[in-house]
Each structure stands twice: as C-alpha cells, then as structure tokens.
C-alpha cells in the first residue's frame, strides 16, 4: 500500500501586524500556489479585535482562493480569538499550552479547526489530544526567535504519529529538516517563514524532495 502523501502547512512569522501584510500577502499567495499547502497558521501580534479581524480578512481571501485552511494564532492577545477568527473568515484557531480546550471546542462552529502546540511534556500533549484538538503541532520557532532542537522535534513527532490518531504537524525551521520530519509519519510538515517567505518557490522544491507532485508539475 502506498503511504499517504505528507501535506504542508505554512507558518507566518510571529507578531504579524498591518504593516507586514503588503509583503506577506503576495508571498503567501505565491507559496500556496507552488505546492500542496493544506493550511496556513497566521501568527498575529496583539491588537484590538477589530484590527485583528481586518488582518484575518485580508489573509483569508488569499488562502480561500488557494484552497488552504487558515488557522489564526495570537499569543499575546487577551481578547476573543474565536470571535476574531469567525468574523475574519478563518477556518479555525491555534492556541499554545491551552488550559481551556474544552471551552474552545464548544465555542467553535462545527467543522472549524482547533489546533494546539507548545507542549512541555508528553502528558500535556496527550491531554490536548483527548481534549478535542484537531491537530497537535510539534516544533516551530519560539516567539523570541529561539530555534527548538531538531532531533527533539523529530522524536516527539515520531512518538505521536506512531501511537495516536489525531494528526500532527512537525515543523521544520530549515529546509534540510523536512525529509526527516516527513519520515516520522507526521501527516503534515510545517514550514517556518524563513523557508518560504522570501522564496515562495521553495515550497515546490520541498515537495520535489519528498517525491511528490507540485500543482501543475510532474512527479519528482
């Protein structure tokens, strides 16, 4: 039996604000066009709900046109992220180290995505999986720019993918990490913005390296 293709998720930089969108939106559009991008995780900076809703609307217009799900994160935002996502037209929300997954799950309309990450322990990851998360994310840059240890990310993703049914995203901070993360069995590999933002065609090269077909292309 052929193993299912590993799909890609694009992660924006942390703290995206209105001043970032003129560069981010066209790069995101080009990157989504360059490969099989299942989802975009938009990591917004803290602002008021009206401003964040406007940002989400601008990005959602691109992702919807490219058939990629838009999941909204806002680490330092203290308002109602579910409301921002819904009014902005996003497909769901992403929260790190959640303490209220059940509440979020109950407030999200049917079919909306609830993602989570930032786990310090395996026990915390299992609690999130049992709490109604649609996916778990392992790895990814910290908000201060620190890079997680790549082998640790691979190990956590491999452990999760082998045992649990809830999908996971294993995040690559550099292109040379992608193949190893895909080999864990993770359903999705996330690409940090350093990989694709300045060079959207990198998404095509990632898929070729995985032996997969990019839209409009031939199998590698």
What features would you highlight for this structure?
alpha/beta; 39% helix; TIM Barrel; 220 residues
Structure description:
This protein is an alpha/beta fold and 220 residues long. The protein has one domain: TIM Barrel, CATH 3.20.20.70. Helices cover 39% and strands 18% of the residues. It has nine helices and eight strands. It has helices spanning 21-33, 49-65, 81-88, 101-107, 122-130, 150-163, 178-182, 193-196, 202-209, and strands spanning 7-11, 37-43, 69-73, 92-96, 113-117, 135-138, 168-172, 188-191. It has an eight-stranded parallel beta barrel with strand order 1-2-3-4-5-6-7-8, surrounded by six helices. The radius of gyration is 16 Å and the shape is globular. The model has no long low-confidence stretch (mean pLDDT 91).
> Helix amount, in percent?
25-40%
CATH architecture: Alpha-Beta Barrel
Shape: globular
Which stretches are poorly predicted, pLDDT < 50 over at least 5 residues?
Answer: none
Strand content: 15-25%
User: What is the CATH first-level class name?
Assistant: Alpha Beta
Question: How far is the N terminus from the C terminus?
Answer: 19 Å
- Gyration radius, to the nearest Å? 16 Å
User: Which sequence of SSEs, written as H and E, runs from N to C?
Assistant: EHEHEHEHEHEHEHEHH
The beta-strand count equals 8
What would you call the structural class?
alpha/beta
What oligomeric arrangement do these chains adopt?
Answer: single chain
The tally of domains stands at 1
Question: How are the strands ordered across the major sheet?
Answer: 1-2-3-4-5-6-7-8
Mean pLDDT: 91
CATH topology name:
TIM Barrel
CATH superfamily: Aldolase class I
Number of helices in the DSSP assignment: 9
Largest sheet: 8 strands, parallel, barrel
